[in-house]
Structure formats: C-alpha cells, structure tokens
Specification:
The chain has about 270 residues and is an alpha+beta fold. It is built from 7 helices and 11 strands. It has helices at about 1-5, 25-35, 50-60, 80-90, 155-160, 175-185, 210-230; strands at about 15-20, 40-45, 65-70, 75, 95-100, 105-110, 110-115, 120, 140-145, 150-155, 190-200. It starts with a helix and ends in a 40-residue tail after the last helix. The relative contact order is 0.18. This is Glycosyltransferase 2-like domain-containing protein.
Amino acid sequence: MEGLLTQTDYPDLELIIVDNQTSDPQTLEYFDELKTRGVRILPHPYPFNYATLNNVGAEFATGEYIGLVNNDIEILHPDWLKEMMSLVVRPDVGAVGAKLLWKNDMVQHAGVVIGINGLAAHTGNNWLRNDPGYLGFNHLARRQSACTTACLILRRDLYLQIEGMDEVRHPVAFNDVDMCLRINELGLKILWTPFAELIHAESASRGKDSTADKAARSKREQNLLLSRWGRSYRYDPAYHPSLNADWALGTYAGMSFSSMNGGALGEGR
C-alpha cells in the first residue's frame, strides 16, 4: 500500500482495501492510519474467495478504470501505472498485465499461455529480469490470451459487463484465466507489457494450497476450467501453434492435467 501511496506517479488514485478477516493488531492499526490518508477499508468477514474479494472492490470503486493489485505486490519504479494505462485506453484493448518478478530478479509472470502442460501457465519463468527471452519476448509488449490479476488494469464498466470473476466455479484458482478468456470472446485484446515491472511475493500472505481440502478444491477448479474452455481453446490464439511451448517452462510452470476427463486446453500442439 505504501508503494501505491508514495511510489506511484499517477494522479487521483482511489485506493480500496478489501479486508478479509485481518486479525493482526499491527495491521489493524495500520488500517486505521490508512483511513486518515484517504484509503477505503471494506470489511469482508467471510471465508477466503479471491474472486469475491476482487468483485467487491470493483463494485465499490468509482473510477473509470480499476487496477486489481494483490497485497504482496511491491513497486519498483513510479511510472508503472502510466505505462499500463497508456495501453488499456486503446479501444481494442480489454485488459493489461504487468511483468512480475520474484525477489531474486527472476521473471515470475510474462503473461499466460493456454495449453502449457495441458492447462495454462505463466510464461518466462526461466528468464532473468533483463534476459531478452525467446525471440525477445521478455522485452516486447505483446498480446496474450490471459494475464494474472495479481496486477491487472481494465475498464470498470467492462469488468461489470462480464460480471467480474466467477466466484462459484473459480473462487481461488484460474479465475483470472477464465475472466481474460471471456474478455477475449468480446473481441478485446489482453496485453502484457515488460515496461511495468513489479515484485510479486506470491502466496506470502496466504500460503500454498498444501492441505488435502485445498488440493481437492484446486483439482475441481482445474476441471471446471477445462469443461468451459477445453474445446474452444485447443490452441492459444495469441501463441503460434508452430512454436514450441517448452521455452515457457521453468520452476513455476503449471502442472499437467492431460489425463483429466474432457481433454486439455491446447491439447494436440
């Protein structure tokens, strides 16, 4: 939040925190301070549902554009939002994603490719921050079929038009992929830019899905993504089918579900 308040060069920011059962005394004290600085705190005392949290924030926002920004994002340079806004204002663009880095300067997210390991995954995970990447992909603003909502900018009216993220089918996982694919269906582009760089300490606040219940929920959401999009997206329209998908794979490369009922997204490449 301090990065948005003091390290982001953009006028008239409306900052909203959707508070999902925070109990830490220091954090609650910080929330009280933030209220005096114009930040809105929306209590959400219900079980964790990532899709719902974003939908609530979008509903209460009043600006023309909304930025979905996770609480584990760190700002690296003040012009990141201006870069993303310069792209999302184009009438043919539906949403814009950012270049997200691990703290060790490795790329965590350079867009999402459909069909990686039978489902969908972040790309560029084996690149260093300044590596050119395959065909210079790490240095090029380009179209993707999806981007993560850990940091995503889009028009608020578009978000409401598509009814935001699917809170029922995808409460935790793949809600961003599903939403971006629905935006694609409207004929609008999802863009990714390497010129908006941020650190994303993924799962730092919430932890990994390591319990049996969480694993079962994750598998259910994977199957639901396949059932909705598996036939429509046998090939990623933003990634040439003649190119090998292996360049995108790294230590954070998604998982293989090609043996699941219903086939696989991108099956057959």
